[in-house]
Amino acid sequence: MFSTPSNPESVFTYGAPALKFGSGASAEIGFDLGQYGARHVLVITDPGVAATGAPRRIAEQLSGFGIQASVYEGVRVEPTDESLLAAVEHARAGGPWDAFVAIGGGSSIDTAKAVNLLTTNPGELMDYVNAPVGGGLAPSRPLKPLVAVPTTTGTGSESTTICVLDVLDLKVKTGISHARLRPVLAVVDPDLAMSQPAGVTAAAGMDILCHALESYTARPYTSYERRRPEERVPYCGSNPVADMWSERAIALLARSFRTAVRDGDDAEARGRMALAATFAGLGFGNAGVHIPHANAYPIAGRVRDFHPEGYPAGEPMVPHGMAVALTAPEAFRFTFEALPERHLRAAELLDPSAARPDDLSEYLPGVLTRLMRDIGLPDGIGGVGYTEADVPALAEGAMRQQRLLGTAPRPVTEDDLTKILTRSIALW
Amino acid sequence: MFSTPSNPESVFTYGAPALKFGSGASAEIGFDLGQYGARHVLVITDPGVAATGAPRRIAEQLSGFGIQASVYEGVRVEPTDESLLAAVEHARAGGPWDAFVAIGGGSSIDTAKAVNLLTTNPGELMDYVNAPVGGGLAPSRPLKPLVAVPTTTGTGSESTTICVLDVLDLKVKTGISHARLRPVLAVVDPDLAMSQPAGVTAAAGMDILCHALESYTARPYTSYERRRPEERVPYCGSNPVADMWSERAIALLARSFRTAVRDGDDAEARGRMALAATFAGLGFGNAGVHIPHANAYPIAGRVRDFHPEGYPAGEPMVPHGMAVALTAPEAFRFTFEALPERHLRAAELLDPSAARPDDLSEYLPGVLTRLMRDIGLPDGIGGVGYTEADVPALAEGAMRQQRLLGTAPRPVTEDDLTKILTRSIALW
């Protein structure tokens, strides 16, 4: 599917934060920060998570370890350049800080990555945003320790080197990516996600699942031309380490996803979801994601009036995990022929009870669609308000995510995306 | 098997170095050190590895990245307090260093950990050695980046927080263990192990396998009483992350171990062995090892005149992996009843073709013994010169390793060890 490289890549890289996992883990952050010598710490969160009381409680616990903590509650869900700058200005005014603690979903963790970068390195936000949107600069100085405390079981941001943002003037979703942005420690306390509404569990869970499925079906690292060390990127394609995390994450979801959506108080299912989110993050943070994530950018970005259950009322939105999921069945139908064995194995792991259809390319899409229907996701991109008339703009928007599309296991044209999006208008 | 904890542990921790894996990876270390801002670096290795030319070649490559590197070739295989002090004195005289690169087996990597500790922190070696042998002090200051480049596929030292040493005056093998000792980056280049003799591949491979098997059958973290954060240790008992690494390591060995011993030039088998060693290290470095490793201390320490094939002539020795392996079948027969499912699963992963015996406690010992016989290991501790008369001293020596024995899945008395050692005099 890819042309055979003349000098194939033989090296893969793997990086991850240290992990502290389990019920009660978030009560010990003060001790962990003390290990980094931190005395003056900024806690970064969003208003919704702040309202649960967890950030305040964690900040108070820090003082028990002799750490002076201040809480910033101004994170915007789905950060923009403006919201990041506001957070950076707040941090610059109150600093210097010895460390940062991000409490929340991907938005809080990503905001903390930007704050950490811009309070330790010279320059401004757009200097570091991926080219061609921004300057694509790499940080020249070390960052401070960032401890990430995910409260939604989904994003995997605690494991990755990426900060995603909307640049408002350009109406584009893009990111900053560098190994130094990765948190040093992920503290995953399943108790913090117990209050998550069913709709959030469903959307965030699809994000976990797509991280695992896309990493697992990403272009193998050996299919690239050999890179020089300075050309290596955190996303290096599927590889034996990422594969292991992805397989285990899919198997954990198979045993917990429907239960966790149905009964948010099922601690065992919640624990498995939290572990699956962590594992999937540890996988995709090194392999990469592809078509469903590329499509998710315009699907979320061009929303008109969809208001998902379980999310704050107000502005219309397609939650990230939902935006990723809606084209996933059709994306995997398209990628099947590039790596058939991996698609079959993924389907088998996700639903060991499902029968193999005669057309094997239908296996993973079928398993995925049944799951999405069971957990109450919208029926395709039509279910969040898009019609055939929107497809060209969505395809054009997804084509801009070349960094992600380059990780797909076969070349992807705008025409391919148009077909995938059109077939995704209704899924069942 | 253990008494039920009144307040069971609910938290586990996981830490690991970043990884760069693959053929040619060792040529890029200069770039990676540059990422840490290093300009003046000490390369630490032993005379045997130095003779292969790899350390000199790597040091020369560093200069291509603007890094000034000096090579210390004085590492002793099986480090002692004396050999570590010699390395520390050499490093103190030539320093300060921005970073360290250890090239070799566990001895070189462990020596580099001690050098890093004692050139960045106050005090002397015995202050940091585990109590009660030493002062058990924790480092008070950050260490420098240590890049570990394993050349024998076995020890897993590149992933762990431990430095093992013999204290000569006390005739005791002990260690220094702290999270800060862990290398920041493991560079695993399977090409560096291509010259390894069959006897070394066999012994080192048994070390990999026992890391995986002992971690996998270690006391579950939930079986301990809840620890306060300052009481947490790098070895926290078996847990979902360590389990995943261990299972995968065992499966990789099943497909490569016999081949790699038989044909040292089989690059695919070598690659799998290197990956298995890394995976097992990433597992046991967080779960812990137990009876076979405890027994290995006196089995190696009390050697009289055994000279293994493939190792330097001269002093008698029982290589570490061999010392670990010789009592493993009997140790797992003893631990079977504590966690039967895990013992069965491990046997199945290691030899999917083996038939299950009627007495299921024989399954894993049987699979292990057949493997050891096939790859040319000595027939039990009798094969390296011990008789029944030596058993009391060996059992007494193993009893001193309470830190390891405490990780076993059931309580272990001196009488239990005596039985295990006696039954291990001849295995087939």
Features:
transit peptide (chains A, B), homodimer, hydroxyacid-oxoacid transhydrogenase activity (chains A, B), Dehydroquinate synthase-like, alpha domain, alpha/beta, six-stranded parallel sheet, EC 1.1.99.24 (chains A, B), Rossmann fold, ADH_Fe_C (chains A, B), 428 residues, globular, ADH_Fe/GldA (chains A, B)
Describe the protein in words.
Two copies of one chain form a homodimer. With 428 residues, the first copy, chain A, is an alpha/beta fold. Chain A has a six-stranded parallel sheet with strand order 2-9-6-5-3-4, with helices on both faces. Chain A has a two-stranded antiparallel ribbon with strand order 7-8. Chain A has 18 helices and nine strands. Chain A is globular. The interface between A and B is medium-sized, with 33 and 33 residues.
